[in-house]
Design goal:
Length: 351
């Protein structure tokens, strides 16, 4: 069997496995849903940090903004002003499946549009910075977003916010969100595959390698940087809006704008798999999430120590990430039909 038919067979097998996973492993349904959230986070961060060389520590701001926007739109349809700080137990009994899905879709749309606007506004100023200045500025934005949300009573302040509960039993809700995150992850992967193969991918790689030379060649670097950040913002908003409904409670610092957990994990997953590649962040997300679950199950109390040691080992023995190591060992042409995906870990001009 030649390589191309073999690759197609692997893709078909993995697709079937992804579709059947919640049925084959119903007891791990929620963990499997979170796995696809991790894939989305990792891929979204890699647009800026891997493909373009702008190491952002504030991408989580779009995740949290989408989460709050979706929840507020939903609650606006099913609750009055006095119920915004309650658990909505009385309102939840009157929610139909159609009503929930309609407001859920509207909330996601509002969150995505709001995050695009936010990306355009912030991008006009923040994307003028480079290197460590950009990283520190985005870190400050993520911290500030959590503190601001904690001080707004309409958002539940520090007490958090309870989203509308989807009608049905836990199994039905788990399946719904699993397939939602799966579809969103596949959509994101296909979108990025298309973008990285066209002029957009070439330009953001040129920005990563040497932005000054890219500007000297007449490339509109600010425009492409803003578009890249906006693409990341849209998918993070769509993921965050559903994630708040999925877990059932929104805390401004520990859930919505959780820079110390999800905000850091998205970076680690991309680095682990190999940033600057299409499949590296996906591979890194799978390994990170599965390993983390195993550590929590069997090394309770030492799970973070074990995870830290794993990251150190990866950095020491796989400095270019797992995909970089695979490319060096077997060659890019044996793994991909697109030679441009063999980007490995180039020198980061803006890192």
């Amino acid at each position: 069997m030649t390589l191309r038919p073999r690759k197609k067979l692997v893709v078909v097998a993995l697709s079937l496995l992804a579709l059947l996973a919640p049925w084959l492993l119903p007891q791990y349904q929620n963990q499997l849903a979170v796995l696809w959230v991790m894939v989305i986070l990792s891929l979204c961060w890699d647009i800026m940090g891997g493909q373009m060389g702008y190491n952002s520590f504030g991408s989580i701001i779009f995740f949290g903004t989408g989460m709050y926007a979706t929840t507020i739109v939903q609650r606006g349809f099913f609750a009055n002003a006095e119920e915004y700080t309650s658990t909505l137990s009385s309102a939840a009994t009157h929610i139909t499946a159609g009503g929930y899905l309609g407001t859920f879709a509207l909330g996601l749309l509002v969150g995505a549009v709001l995050c695009i606007i936010l990306a355009l506004i912030l991008g006009a100023a923040v994307l003028q910075l480079r290197g460590h200045y950009f990283a520190i500025c985005t870190l400050g934005l993520s911290i500030a977003a959590g503190e601001i949300a904690s001080g707004i009573d309409y958002l539940g302040a520090g007490s958090g916010l309870t989203p509308i509960t989807m009608p049905g039993n836990l199994g039905e809700r788990g399946l719904f969100f699993y397939y939602y995150f799966l579809i969103l992850a596949v959509w994101l992967l296909l979108t990025l595959r298309f973008l990285y193969r066209c002029r957009f991918g070439l330009v953001i790689n040129a920005i990563r390698d040497n932005e000054d030379k890219a500007e000297a060649m007449g490339l509109r670097t600010t425009l492409y940087k803003t578009v890249a950040w906006s693409v990341s913002a849209v998918f993070l908003a769509l993921a965050g809006g559903a994630y708040g409904n999925f877990i059932g409670f929104i805390d401004p610092i520990d859930v919505a704008f959780s820079g110390s957990t999800l905000g850091v994990w998205m970076i680690l997953m991309a680095i682990l798999g190999g940033k600057g590649t299409l499949w590296g962040p996906v591979l890194g997300a799978f390994i990170f999430h599965i390993t983390q679950e195993l550590f929590w199950a069997y090394l309770l109390g030492w799970q973070r120590v074990a995870m830290g040691l794993l990251i150190v080992l990866i950095v020491l023995f796989f400095p270019q990430g797992l995909m970089g190591w695979i490319h060096e060992r077997w060659g890019a042409n044996d793994l991909s039909d697109d030679p441009k995906t063999n980007r490995g870990q180039p020198e980061q001009g803006n890192a």
